[in-house]
Amino acid sequence: MFFSHRSGKSRRKGSAAFSGVEALEIRSLLTTYGLPWSDPRSLSISFPGDGTPIGSEANDIRQTLDAVTTRTRWQTAALQAFQTWAEVANINVGLVADRSDAFGTAGLASNDPRFGEFRIGAFSQPGVLASAVPFQPVAGTWSGDVLLNSDVSWYLGNSPAQQAPGGKGYELRTVLLHEAGNSLGLEDRQDAGYVMSAQYTSPRWSLTAGDISAIRAIYGARQDIWESVPNENSATATPIVLTAAEAAVGRAVRSGSLNTADDRDFYSFVMPAEKTSATVTVWASGISLLESRLRVRKEQGGVLGSDAVSGVFQNNGRVHLTGLTPGATYVISVDSLENSSFRVGDYRLDLDYRDPAQLTPTTSANYDSAAYSGRQRLQNADNVGLPQLFSTGLVDSEVGQNDRPATATALQSTPGFISQSRYEAMGAIATAVDRDLYTIVAPAGAVGSLNITLTALGTVRPDLTVVVMNQAGDRMPSQLKVGSDGLQSLVVPNAVPGQTYVVGVWQRAGAVQSTGNYLVTADFSTAAAQMTVLTEKSLAIGAVDADLLSSSKSQLFRFDLTTFSTSAGKATLISIIDVRTQQLVRTISAAGGVTASAFVWLPVGDYQVVAKAYAQGSTVTGPVSYRLLADVVSDDDGPGYSDPTLPPPPSEPPPYTYNENPDGSPTDPTLPGPEDDPFYQIPWWDMVERYFDDLFGSGT
User: Fold this and answer.
1) Which pTM does this prediction carry?
2) Are 234-358 and 384-527+687-700 equal in CATH topology?
3) How far is 487 from 454, CA to CA, in rounded Å?
């Protein structure tokens, strides 16, 4: 199997007329390798439900792999793939629930409470075996996702020595191990014999020295960041001494890690006066994939209690002890299960003297999401904050602390992104008159616009709105569009480098549900120097132009659309239409002075790229000029066995081609309806109203 590799020189297109097909040989695609995740010790994996949208397609991972083997086996294989990398590098991967929000939905760059960083899915992808998106700021929550081709003949071997039945098919764990490397930031190698080799020749379940060196170049070798002094035996056990606050509560929690398969951690504690019982818990669910064994013994004596977890899907352990002696010393040991594939990972050790009736159950979440139902929902999440986030409970009951520009909460740059290029906040509107204001600072090299998204959370989602101001409380010129799913996108054109902006969230006028939780993100447009210019044209108002984009394989595109005008009354709408089905895949709109970005997953095939010029107001005249840029964000593996002793082909087809004004134009497309008009549902600039009519009243 030949894995696709990007190479060649970049060729950009200007505004000159062009006919015929141009092979866009990309020198530097947006796919960026070598960038570490911002919080590598807190990564997670999840399995979205079947039917979860992947662009215009739908996830069918269960339908695909349930026909290959049991669900437990193939999900375990995916977990083993990521665990293999975690054993040798300073990263940690846990298993979390997935709410089955659409792939690529707006959200937090890391630790989004709705799903893992690594979401595993599948759909029909002619031309590739699997696709993965490495961590990169421009990709949003697409980063980390691994998508298999559901049309491929898969099999899961009992060992790496087992070949495909009948000599046909691809070994699932081998491909997942390679894709996990891509999603962690590793680029394909052109030489054979590595997990990250660009050719598939046979099953491989273990890393080579070269693979290990490559992952450590990004994250470093694995370390026990919690263990400052070795505690591998009872003589060197780490004492758990309760602070005054812990003693008052009757509970102490310590973080730990098993750094190798043979590692063991020992802790000791002295029973408090008047206490005769204790409960010891090892929490690993959602933290790591560790399968642990817990023992508690007397300081000088035998084991009083032990617990071995039942497996990676239920990997919390607990021992409850009674009849203990006040003032006596006891020893806790944590090690891993022999013959387990999950012998390394972080955990939390919980020593609790309270009544067992007060303790949280150790049963892990149901990680196997149900089929997508068209509604955002969470499947039995176990994180303490999640029931609040996605029910009527509030993550924050604050009222009145940050409701004015002078008291706004100053947000810090999101770790892992270029300084001041991205900000994230999770909060709650606690009452009908509550307001949450945040300050953000534009980077010194800001270009283009400030893009803000607001996502309401909850089983009953609050009716909220988002605005942007300067520090004096004056509303900034901005454009707001509300999607059918309630996602609000606010664009502030021409962000000023170094300027402080104030972002406000509160209930919408006429709200039915005025309280609830939300996520808000703010991105400053990144420079488009890496992207390829597809077309740059001028159209008369109301005119339509159709070009043709041909995708040579299934891949995730980023499109940037800019309308060049000082007038907000001019706009461009781009419609991407599947030529074969005439299905509208995606629309992108940008008003004057604004650059709009969109991520679109396009399977192999031909797509019409239809542009239409719009105007608002009778005084707006003249042509509308626009520019459309694109590049590929995902990395893919192409199907087909190949002989590793032979050199790879000297070149490969470009990932896509773009044909301006194609001869023999495709069938006239069915253009989008009025709801896709760039002026639809957009409250436009109001340069007369410089202040909020009722900033601290109705909020409208």
Assistant:
1) 0.71
2) yes
3) 6
